[in-house]
Write a structure and sequence with these properties.
This protein has about 625 residues and is of the alpha+beta class. It contains 21 helices and 30 strands. The strands form eight sheets. A six-stranded mixed β-sheet has the order 13-14-15-18-19-22, with helices on both faces. The longest helix has 17 residues, at about 40-55. The radius of gyration is 26 Å and the shape is globular.
Length: about 625
């Protein structure tokens, strides 16, 4: 009969927060998983050569920046195929593709564990200057680290498996993606304790030994075994074909984000199935708590909106959720935090920009490499919805020698401006080197559409400038074009950057890949990483206070239009697209009533201050 202690241990191990030991997870796979015969290995390499040569959007850029030809490297690997073990083959190919420094373009071999994340029961963050950072433990899963009372948030890490911690980060950064050194280091700090096994091979070591300095400054040492957790995706995450082919995301980082939530905020992870439990601080439950959260800061003076991810299936529902939260926040200023946002649905990121400005949004533009294969893909009847707009320029490029198609938006101008402004206060956007892909696009939109300042932890955003497709989507599009890929062996897959992104506005035509979006720089403090971004929020408050502020609230009460203004000197009213009368000049802040005529369907109120448009609200009236 099992003891009570053994029963408790079994319950603990079966808890998704605990996962299982890495070694056990690997042993559970059937015999032969990861084994590819020679022909299957050549099929994998043939896929990559075909995709890189004919489709990969950044190939000319990567050749110029790094002097590295992945196609030639694959040809060299082809000559060694018979000499490599299965694991060696997968590792060699993964490391080869990673030399592109592109988190969009990744190989996933059958030795990896799909939907699994190798994890240690703590998180590490850095603070201080980039030249001399300090590394602290910021979260500990106390249910796993049960018998080590000294290993708590705030302890300083000094050695990692006998290597000075800063050097360990540098070594790990050498094999990470990222076009800039600071981006690779940022990803290395994260992947030291969390690794998405769908895109990376399992850790070489079964455990790590960490030397740290406790809160009383005493040097201690502790050993942790690697475990594997399985953070499933949120029910509202992108799944449809139309969403998948319009994504800009680092899929490995999205898996890690979910694993962090599972390991260190388990109750919120479980509440995804019951959104009302996830609502807090008097804010509405939206059903999108995995992607958006909000709170009031600085004695309720400002709002704070955290955009965890754009990886939603329904951009319309995502915008509705954001608007719900914004209405519940103070309008004196808003901090929009995109740190560690891995990206997601491009429509969701670019359509969200309109909520924060009275002016029209110009979206980012995308282009395909001009090759016979991309021209055939764009011309194929079954690919028209995805690639049709690029077809003419790809066909024309054959005669002009252009390297790329025309740059066209994935999110139309109409989509980017169909909802209008929802939040009227000033905004500041906070990003870091792990803000990636659609996170890059959102940040570019903030800067290029002059919505507000950007504050960077590090040099710039993560520099992921592309639309990424899965191997299934690429294969289907090529099959439709009559240029099929060789069949991939079961369990192998890839993601690839298909369309590159360039900025708009004052930076029109500027590449995002490997550069990112820069802004004012900020160095995190110890109080930031241990006490809820205390100094960062104060700094953002100063940036908000330095911006002009005004207020416009518009509501309908029967046949009356109620307009509340503050800091505005003129308003214009439009009904169904036509001016409803002369401009109304405002001498004093306050509320006024205006009568409504029957039959109106849409009202737009535009607020001015010193001849500049500061506010804009749209109301759609219910038909009688």
């Amino acid at each position: 009969m099992p003891t009570r202690r053994a029963s408790r241990r079994r319950r603990r191990i079966s808890d998704p927060q605990f996962g299982q030991p890495l070694e056990r997870a690997l042993q559970q796979f059937p015999h032969g998983v990861g084994a590819l015969n020679g022909a299957e290995r050549f099929d994998v390499l043939d896929n990559w050569v075909h995709v890189l040569d004919n489709l990969y959007a950044h190939l000319p850029l990567k050749l110029a920046l790094y002097g590295f030809s992945p196609v030639r490297a694959i040809e060299r690997l082809r000559q060694q195929v018979s000499e490599l073990s299965d694991l060696q083959f997968h590792r060699e190919l993964m490391m080869l593709i990673n030399r592109l420094r592109d988190a969009h373009t990744q190989y996933s071999g059958p030795k990896t564990l799909q939907n699994a994340v190798a994890s240690l029961p703590f998180l590490v963050e850095s603070f201080g200057s980039a030249s001399k950072p300090s590394y602290l433990v910021t979260k500990v899963n106390q249910r796993i680290v049960r018998n080590e009372a000294h290993f708590v948030p705030g302890v300083k890490l000094e050695f990692w498996n006998g290597v000075p911690f800063d050097r360990a980060v540098d070594l790990h950064a050498e094999v990470e993606t990222g076009g800039r050194p600071d981006a690779r280091r940022a990803r290395a700090v994260e992947s030291l304790t969390m690794r998405a096994l769908g895109y990376l091979p399992p850790p070489e070591e079964k455990w790590v030994i960490v030397q740290y300095r406790d809160l009383k400054n005493k040097v201690r040492e502790i050993r942790f075994n690697w475990r594997v957790v399985y953070p499933d995706r949120d029910p509202r995450a992108s799944r449809s074909h139309s969403a998948r082919t319009r994504r800009g995301i680092n899929p490995a980082a999205e898996s890690v984000r979910r694993a962090k939530k599972l390991m260190f905020n388990t109750e919120l992870w479980r509440a995804e199935r019951n959104p009302k439990k996830a609502a807090r601080e008097g804010l509405p439950a939206t059903g999108y708590e995995d992607f958006l959260s909000a709170k009031r800061v600085m004695n309720d003076k400002y709002g704070y909106l955290r955009i965890w991810s754009f990886d939603v299936n329904d951009d319309q529902g995502f915008l509705d959720a954001a608007i719900q939260l914004l209405k519940a926040l103070p309008d004196r200023g808003l901090i929009i935090d995109l740190r560690n946002n891995p990206g997601g649905l491009i429509w969701a990121a670019e359509r969200m920009l309109q909520l924060f400005t009275p002016n029209s949004i110009t979206p980012t533009k995308f282009a395909l490499r001009a090759t016979p294969v991309t021209a055939a893909m764009a011309a194929a009847a079954l690919n028209q919805q995805e690639l049709g707009p690029w077809a003419a320029s790809l066909t024309g490029a054959a005669g002009t020698g252009e390297l790329y198609s025309s740059h066209l938006p994935i999110t139309s101008v109409e989509q980017c401006n169909d909802r209008g402004q929802s939040y009227g206060g000033p905004v500041v956007v906070v990003v870091d080197a792990n803000t990636y892909s659609s996170g890059d696009l959102f940040t570019a939109g903030i800067v290029d559409n002059r919505i507000g300042p950007v504050l960077c932890i590090g040099e710039a955003t993560g520099a992921g400038g592309a639309n990424v497709w899965t191997s299934d989507d690429v294969s289907a599009a090529m099959e439709s074009a009559g240029v099929p890929l060789p069949a991939l062996p079961q369990g192998t897959s890839f993601t690839v950057a298909v369309r590159r992104a360039v900025r708009s506005g004052d930076a029109d035509g500027t590449l995002i890949e490997d550069a990112g979006i820069a802004g004012q720089t900020y160095a995190m403090t110890r109080d930031d990483i241990l006490y809820g971004n205390r100094d960062l929020i104060r700094h953002c408050a100063k940036l908000l206070d330095a911006q002009p502020w005004s207020r416009l609230n518009v509501s309908v009460d029967g046949d009356k239009l109620n307009i509340e203004t503050c800091g505005l000197d003129q308003i214009d009213i439009y009904t169904d697209g036509h001016a409803a009368g002369p401009s109304i000049h405002i001498a004093h802040d306050g509320t006024r009533e205006i009568g409504l005529s029957r039959g109106m369907q849409q009202i737009e109120v535009v607020g001015f201050a010193e001849k500049l448009v500061r506010q804009r609200r749209r109301l759609t009236l219910n038909p009688e």
